[in-house]
Amino acid sequence: MNLSKLQILLITVSCFLISCKKENLNSVKAEVSTEYLLESQYNSAFFEKITFQIKEDSSYIFTKESDLDHDNSSIISKGKIRIQNDTIIFRYHQFTINQAKKAVLKNNLIIFFNAENPYRLPISKTKLIVKNYYDLNQFKNYSTFTSEEFFLKHYYKKDFINYELQNNDMIQLDKIVKKMLHENNDKLKTFENYVIQCCAIKNDKEEIEVFLIFIVMMKWLILASKQAQFQCMMEEIVM
After folding, report:
1. Which of 68, 183, 58, 44 has the alpha carbon at shortest distance from 120?
2. pLDDT category of residue 218 using cuts at 50, 70 and 90
């Protein structure tokens, strides 16, 4: 892709509470599962322990347990799926959490597709095909999203299609982002302090446009008392 056609049209700097483990946010290579076809285990920023597993018999189970909401502490969803290359198709019933009919495995993520209610989980272990479009270890501070996940259709009124950022695209994007942060170092934090969400599209002029959201990495310190009551203190991670 020609650098002149790479346009960063929206840069939003925002603070957001995320979990203290950076590996939960970044896409790193998944291990090979020995017990399941696919497994995701994730501790969310909202004190939830989330597990999604696909067994050899093509059944799945999803559980979400909350440390804060004890009255509704557990959500369980079960069902059958069909696997087609890198796509999971939910049979008979939609995925309960966001009513998705299918999920796609890419960039070490499970992306449950629903235009009105997007949902994604990191892959912990898998035997399935997962297509990684760029070097996940090289670009640990980035995560790519579809236009549906960015709700782009609500404020971008021109014709466009989704575009998958490849490794060469990410190299160019990384240079532009770091240059922008350096030139505005009196107002913004250093690159290492951000997780950067990217949404790339191809417009009707065949130009690649990239929308970015910069999220400041924060950390929750959780102190548990003997009565299992949680007290939270937030501090900024020094990367």
Report:
1. 44
2. low
